[in-house]
Amino acid sequence: MIRGEDKMQKITIEPVTRIEGHAKVTIHMGAKGKVENAFMHVNEFRGFEKFTEGRPFFEMLQITPRICGICPVSHHLASAKACDRVIGATPPRTAGLLRELMHMGQFIQSHSMHFFELAGPDMLLGFDADPAIRNVVGVIQANPELALKAVQSRAFGQEIIRKLGGKRVHPIHSIPGGVNGPLSAEDCDDFLSRIDEVMETIKLAITVAKGWFEANRELVDKFAVFPSGYLGLVDEQGGLQLYDGRLRLMDKNGKTLEEFDPKNYLEHIAEHVENWSYLKFPYYRKLGYPAGTYRVGPLARLNVAERINTPLANEEFANFKALSDGKPVEGTLWYHYARLIEDLYAIERAKEILLDPEVTSTNLVGDSKGLTGEGVGCLEAPRGTLFHHYKTDQNGMLTKVNLIVATGHNNWAINKSVEMVAKSFVDGKKLTEGMLNRVEAAIRAYDPCFSCSTHAIGAMPMVIELLGPDGEIIERISR
Fold first, then answer.
1. Which among 66, 96, 317, 382 has most CB atoms closer than 10 A?
2. Which pLDDT tens digit goes with each residue over 353-407?
3. How far does CA 234 lie from the centroid of its chain?
4. How far apart are CA 282 and CA 405, in angstroms?
5. Cα 58 from Cα 40, distance rounded (Å)
6. How far apart are CA 365 and CA 229, in angstroms?
7. How would you class 354 by CB atoms within 10 Å of its CB: exposed for 0-12, middle for 13-18, buried for 19 or more?
8. Cβ–Cβ under 8 Å, residues 26 and 12
9. Cβ atoms within 10 A of the Cβ of 478, count?
10. Distance between CA 317 and CA 305 in Å, rounded?
């Protein structure tokens, strides 16, 4: 590409690795080897909203988890909440507890996996480490004891999902109006006998992460630090919520713009499209695009919350808030710290639920008041706010489906992070693999799931090409 006398070069990173799904990054450079702009492209098409039209609404509890093998529980539960409303049913308290317990299992397995297996290789081995060892195997070789504890923590979360849903991936448990099976007293006691050990591992991970942040504070303070809006669920007292609550939208200065029932999300959220990505860009309707863009996920949830309702996580929450004297924490790498604080909350909340006498009750399904024709389900998936919205005809057949997933909400912010990191760290005259890995690390911090946002799957070896103005490959890096 040539613009006047300023000859342009383009670097393509495809696919981006250690994320869920498939994306590519293009970095456009000027003649002096400086980055002019950069984009993250999601280049698969998402079709779930369309091809499910005409299906019975209750099939969505089993169809939508197939969007992704990483976060099927989030789709299963969001779908269940939407279907509750379609039939006008309120699940009994025990059904709500069991759904939330499965949700905590999803957080424990997902957040633990991300820190140790996806982000961990960069943080524990270094951004410039040899790609041959900068992976989960390298983490195992560097610290086998820590790696084993990480695997056990993830397995614990997966076991909660399996016990309730029959399998670790694509569970079958929630139904419209409740759940289809109880938690046995034996399984409850088994989880309680092991839960403190997992809690200690998560606390150890927080200690490791805090050590890394302290040692790398200069990098953290210049790595994709920018103001934005933030969106997340809170309870009536402003406490962190992951399964249920009201949505709080906050501006870049920490001022609450809106607090609303999720069923009214379309009054506040609209979606923008660009011709270079299949992934849409949600934004706050009143401010328009891009002024109304915002972030979701762990960093956003801790920014909008006023406290956490479990003791140990709330202690870490106070440390998090102190990072910016109570104002929104803007640094993208702080997502990792926020994620581990949520991991701690999830294990504490799981213990609370398991100690609740009603968790083993067999009162599992609420009565239906008949088809209402519409339902919105919303919860906080590990990666951020998730909406399922169904409309049906008088026979319960779907006439319209809308899904907004976490990575969609973060689309603008991920692109902003990619551009900032590329401009800060990429030098086109002496390109290194480590420079480009930092660009990928900016994406990984959000723990994006492109499988959810585009229904694409798979990760392939990474190839980076530096192209000259005539399209000739100047440099090529692969792994």
1. 382
2. 999 999 999 999 999 999 999 999 999 999 999 999 999 999 999 999 999 988 8
3. 17
4. 10
5. 35
6. 38
7. buried
8. yes
9. 10
10. 9
